[in-house]
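User: My instructor asked us to take a sequence, write out its structure as tokens, and then describe one feature of it. I'm not sure where to start. Here is the sequence I was given:
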Amino acid sequence: MSRDGVLVLYHDAALERKTRLKGRVADYSAATLLATDIGTWFDEQHPEVERRYAGTKITTLDRVLAEFSDTFLWHIEIKGAQPELPERVLAAVREHDLLDRVMITSFLFDHVAKVRELDGDVPLCLRMRDPKTPVASLPTSQREALLESQRERIVQAKNAGLDMVGLRASVMTPEIIAFAREEQGLAIRAWGI
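Assistant: Let's start with the prediction itself. The structure tokens for your sequence are:
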């Protein structure tokens, strides 16, 4: 969410990874963000791709939902720490009548728990931050600690009434998938593939 309260689409916490701005989305007004090029970084990192994206600007969640409405099944990830984000994202989804076509997700448990409090039916996913190191490369003690941490967060998600957990692909194991799906009844998705 911009400094002046506009929901924008942006992937990273740090603007400098994909734009010429420094800092966080919340540091800037919507006017500044919407005038910011987000395509040049892609062109620079992927010169082999024919299509060029330089000049593509950051956009708003509302603009994308309005333009594509029921074209997609949406997976909207709430990023940013502002406590009002869950309510604002849910309001945008409702405004575009997309509750039956959306999964709302976040790495921040409080955000998905707040959405669940506001709406008992909208599908929700808790994404988990785990180490990048492939689980097979971890010493036994670290692997066991990771598995225990994953189980705790999966139970937390289940107890909060969530529908799905998202784990980094490199640390997914048949054991944790079975625990999430069979023992806790949660769907599971991989990220960072």
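For the description part of your assignment, you could build on this observation: The mean pLDDT is 94. Try explaining in your own words what that tells you about the chain.
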